[in-house]
Amino acid sequence: MSAQSPQLHPVEATATTEQISEDARRAAEEARVGWERFEQLIAEDKRVEPRDWMPNNYRKTLVRQVSQHAHSEIIGMQPEGNWITRAPSLKRKAVLMAKVQDEAGHGLYLYSAAETLGTPRDELYEQLYTGKAKYSSIFNYPARTWADIGAIGWLVDGAAITNQVPLCRASYGPYGRAMVRICKEESFHQRQGWEILYTLSHGTQAQKQMAQDAVDRFYGPALQMFGPPDDESPNSKQSMAWNIKRFSNDDLRQRFVDMIVPQAEALGLTLPDPELKWNDERGHYDYGDLDWDEFFSVVKGNGPLNHQRLAHYRAARDEGAWVREAAAAYAAKQQQAAHDAALLTA
Ligand code: FAQ
């Protein structure tokens, strides 16, 4: 089943069990049974749950993907959060505030899912804080105008949904279940972005130009959210063999392009790619090459706002340290009080 051999098969690992202790023999037997059950769950397209045995690399892959996803939601609050005070009406402000809060919630569901794999949340936060962890490239681009908030909703949340609907069927139970709720909320996010752009593109000439300019800037980076091309995606093959990812990066990118071309027409806006053209034979839109040098540079930390995004995250975390300390001290006090009360009544 495995596309690569992720680790030594337990049967091989048991070859020397006669020389080792009874405990080790039993552990190896448990791993053998666990391995077989895991392979069966994957073959039958069933869920793997936190207490099930799983190969180390499956666990590592999930912690990597789920925590990067959580970090993306948290860092992704910044470009839009920056516009809450400048939203053009009370209604727009309320909607945007709700959306940014949703993104925080998504981050929390995802950190919870990652924790069930055995990596403590503080460790995951630390990886983001120190810049060791990745998050989606898209959030290193600035939101310059109000129309950018429309483009983020329509294109960025649109790409996020296209990528995440198949993840609702991810083999790891807590991740798949978190994605179901997240996708419902993302659908609302995409519609609010579309509606902002529709309003602008049917407003004054200057508003329409602002909407077009936002779409021109976000189109390429949104398509890159799906990850590098398949032949440069080292993780896809194994993740698909494990039913974590259901489709390749390029397949999802194509699905997204096919979806947004008619939506752009309905908006009265154009997409900034002269090679975009319906291909009858393929039954899909052809599209031009994306700037992959730029993508890899952004992923390595050299995008327009990588430094600013992390600096802002660190400052918020540092400034909030006293709240976390106070909450922990209060929880410890409550626990002690409950303990003392139990002793008294015993
Ligand atoms: N940015 O081998 P692959 C959102 C990395 S949430 C940065 O293809 P994989 C909601 C990748 O990690 C958006 N890095 O990797 C929202 C890997 O590095 P590693 C986030 C990227 O995992 C909206 C290396 O390149 N969504 O938008 C990117 O099989 C509005 C090789 O790549 C998710 O995280 C990238 N774009 O496929 C919030 C969805 N692409 O770890 C606020 C879940 C790739 O080996 C406002 N994740 N890399 O060092 C996934 O589906 C997958 O992880 C992919 C990447 C498709 C992102």
From TrEMBL:
Gene Ontology cellular-component terms listed: cytosol
Keyword field: Oxidoreductase
Pfam (any one): PaaA_PaaC
GO molecular function: phenylacetyl-CoA 1,2-epoxidase activity
Gene3D superfamilies linked to this entry: 1.20.1260.10
Region span, Disordered: 1-27
EC number, as in UniProt: 1.14.13.149
Name used for this protein in its record: 1,2-phenylacetyl-CoA epoxidase subunit A
